[in-house]
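W.,

You were right to be curious about this one. When I first looked at the sequence I had no strong expectations either way, so I just let the prediction run and decided to look at it fresh. Below is the sequence, 285 residues in total, followed by the output.
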Amino acid sequence: MEIPDGLAWMRNHPDPAAWLDDLPGLVDRATQRWHLEVGEPYGGSSVSWVAPARWGDEDVVLKVQWPHRECEHEAAALVAWAGDGAVALLAHAPELDALLLERCDPGDRLADRPDVDAVDVMVELLPRLWAPPTEPFGSLADEAAGWRAALWPDWSAAGEPCERRLVEAADEALLDLPATQGPAVLLHQDLHADNVLSSTREPWLAIDPKPLLGERELAVAPIVRDFTLGTGRAAVLRRLDRLTAELGLDRERAAGWSIAQTIAWAFSSGHAEAHYETVRHLLDR
């Protein structure tokens, strides 16, 4: 079975490598369970095996996930959204970590459509994804505590790749923001332009949630740092200003969460330098 290049990193880590060894069997079991005709996997994913499939007379997508904390409740989030602004969940096999999903057609990534105002799309999608808080999702407060605990060790382990002031700013935000949050909603904490696809059912649909329960201001962080939408100071601050103004969010809290999550995720990112640059712009706003 073809293993996409995005999963190659798993070979160097014991637990992911073990899952990768099991992956052909997982795909085969999912294929048999749902009587699928499965095509070649898509590229791009770094934590899941994702491929187009045929389910009876329906075009669908088969997604087999490497089980990790951030994707633990993806199926539950898709159930909560029920296809409103997000791809629909058609079936779920939790014992295989497999999901059968609606296929977006034509499936263009928002990041690849410079003719479309991405912020307009996000402003339309985000309120629809802010569903009422329910089980079984984890809290932003708990997630933020984990980010803060790992900040300085991760910075050191990565060879201190950015100036100290960026980590200090993230540390301060993670100390102050979690305890003073507004009302909690269901959040897609990784809604950037690569995770929004064009569709015939709706113009644009969100994919790949990393769901959490927390205040709305966190939701703009992945959009503010989205390097596919421009990395210059003006572009970054324009996204922050438009999102907070048009969605009625607290600009300073949104900036704080953007700094905090961006640094917390940057040390293991392949786009770390772009993320550091985003945080510099936010600190100098």
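Here's what jumped out at me. Residues 14-34 form the longest helix (21 residues). And, maybe more interesting for your project: The chain has two domains: 5-103, 109-283.

Coffee later to discuss?

I.
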